[in-house]
């Protein structure tokens, strides 16, 4: 090889290395919910080891949950120094955090092969799979693909309680382009429902444009999804996070004005139509009564099955009446909720959250809007034994499914606390026929159909055991 060829080859290698060091990290998108997708060309396995340094100080954000709600448990889960967690969050090392409180976790991020990561060990619990571990326990600070890559010979279905696995936590070090503009740290942030690049950047005083660049997102309108993580570039170490108060609930829609009285001919047609409809309705009611009486005599008794109903959950009768005042039975029901890490609320807390279940907070049926710890929730009153549904719903963790976050028992009734769907029910949008502004384009309808199918696929394929949605 002559000298000119050698110089050209060295120049090409130097150019490639420089380009890699200056490159940013691609946003992973919805691939985190598709564990069986073989495409790992982007950051689904972790952020590329392309920074100026092969190891650095980085930061994570973790939302406190019942099993991981104090400095010690969070530091053990994420392999962080408890004294550093206490110092940066301005608490003591024995402090306990409120549920869903955002906790800053300092970690040492380093290259492992081609990717930056912070390896931590995790002991498998009953019902765990790679999807649940990544998106529920670790709150999208890892991915099911990355965890599977660390245990290539152990499929998700073969995990057993007590088994210890390695979980790679997503982190990264600044690239040359970032350090040149004063970026010294990168923070891995788990995106919550409804958040945007701008709102996330504002929590840390970061420049939204730099956040877009760090994640290779094209513009401020780019969508970031729940159950994904976002890199936030910082000039200085983050400080304790203060979340702004949520906006007040939207006012109820005004009632449509009454139509002015029409002429006598219009009234005549109304009377005729009402009479016809009333007669048809009466015939239908009689037919239904006869059918129900006949069907109830011939219907065979079937064993109950565990199934996931819609948000208007099926209410099953109690085998043992709640009205019998059995304190042991009530205690056993509460212990079920506590054993699956659901928050158990006092009834007075729900009364305060709903303004004593006032009509202004009524949504539909027995469902009420509430504000708990500054966040909107929906509270459903249910009469009957829903312990099996509670155990099932608590295992469901998917961006296309409503989550159950807490329970309460009072005077023989269950009160189920769900996450709040701020945009209302889907049926209101699909079947809207007024001028309220609710309109879905065909593109929106196709996207919704795809989201519904994704949620059903999760119930059928990734819950253990699989569950069938009957509604």
From TrEMBL:
Gene3D superfamilies assigned to the protein according to its UniProt record, in alphabetical order: Phosphorylase Kinase, domain 1 (3.30.200.20), Transferase(Phosphotransferase) domain 1 (1.10.510.10)
Domain Protein kinase: 318-471
Keywords: Membrane, Signal, Transmembrane, Transmembrane helix
Gene Ontology CC entries for this record: plasma membrane
Organism: Gossypium laxum
Stretches that traverse the bilayer: 269-295
Listed name of the protein: LysM domain receptor-like kinase 4
Biased composition (Pro residues): 244-260
Gene Ontology MF term list: ATP binding; protein kinase activity
Signal sequence bounds: 1-23
Spans annotated as Disordered: 237-262
Domain LysM stretches: 187-232
């Amino acid at each position: 090889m002559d000298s000119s060829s050698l110089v050209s080859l060295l120049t090409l290698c130097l150019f490639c290395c420089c380009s890699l060091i200056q490159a940013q990290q691609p946003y992973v998108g919805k691939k985190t919910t598709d564990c069986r997708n073989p495409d790992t060309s982007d950051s689904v396995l972790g952020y590329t080891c392309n920074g100026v340094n092969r190891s650095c100080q980085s930061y994570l954000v973790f939302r406190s949950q019942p099993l991981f709600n104090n400095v010690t448990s969070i530091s053990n889960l994420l392999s962080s120094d408890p004294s550093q967690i206490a110092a940066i969050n301005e608490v003591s090392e024995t402090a306990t955090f409120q549920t869903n409180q955002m906790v800053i976790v300092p970690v040492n991020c380093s290259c492992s092969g081609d990717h930056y990561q912070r390896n931590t060990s995790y002991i498998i619990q009953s019902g765990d799979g790679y999807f649940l571990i990544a998106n529920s326990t670790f709150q999208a600070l890892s991915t099911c693909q990355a965890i599977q890559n660390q245990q290539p010979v152990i499929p998700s279905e073969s995990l057993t309680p007590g088994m210890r696995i390695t979980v790679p936590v997503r982190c990264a070090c600044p690239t040359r382009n970032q350090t040149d503009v004063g970026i010294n740290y990168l923070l891995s942030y788990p995106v919550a429902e409804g958040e945007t690049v701008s709102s996330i950047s504002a929590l840390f005083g970061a420049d939204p444009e730099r956040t877009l660049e760090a994640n290779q997102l094209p513009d401020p309108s780019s969508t970031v999804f729940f159950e994904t993580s976002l890199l936030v570039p910082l000039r200085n170490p983050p400080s304790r996070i203060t979340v702004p108060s949520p906006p007040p609930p939207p006012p109820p829609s005004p009632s449509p004005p009454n139509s002015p009285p029409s002429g006598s001919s219009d009234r005549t047609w109304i009377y005729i139509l009402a009479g016809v409809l009333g007669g048809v309705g009466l015939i239908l009611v009689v037919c239904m009564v006869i059918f129900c009486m006949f069907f109830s005599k011939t219907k065979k008794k079937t064993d109950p099955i565990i199934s996931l109903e819609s948000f208007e959950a099926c209410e099953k009768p109690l085998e043992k009446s709640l009205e019998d005042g059995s304190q042991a039975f009530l205690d056993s029901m509460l212990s079920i909720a506590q054993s699956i890490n659901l928050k158990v609320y006092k009834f007075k807390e729900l009364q305060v959250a709903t303004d004593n279940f006032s009509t202004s907070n009524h949504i539909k049926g027995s469902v009420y809007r509430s504000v708990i710890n500054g966040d909107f929730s929906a509270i459903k009153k249910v009469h009957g034994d829903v312990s099996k549904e509670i155990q099932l719903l608590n295992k469901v963790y998917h961006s296309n499914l409503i989550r159950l976050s807490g329970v309460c028992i009072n005077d023989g009734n269950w009160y189920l606390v769900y996450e709040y769907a701020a945009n209302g029910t889907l049926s209101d949008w699909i079947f809207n026929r007024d001028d309220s502004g609710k309109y879905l384009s065909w593109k929106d309808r196709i996207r919704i159909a795809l989201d519904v199918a994704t949620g059903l696929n999760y119930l059928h394929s990734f819950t253990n055991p699989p569950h069938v949605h009957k509604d």
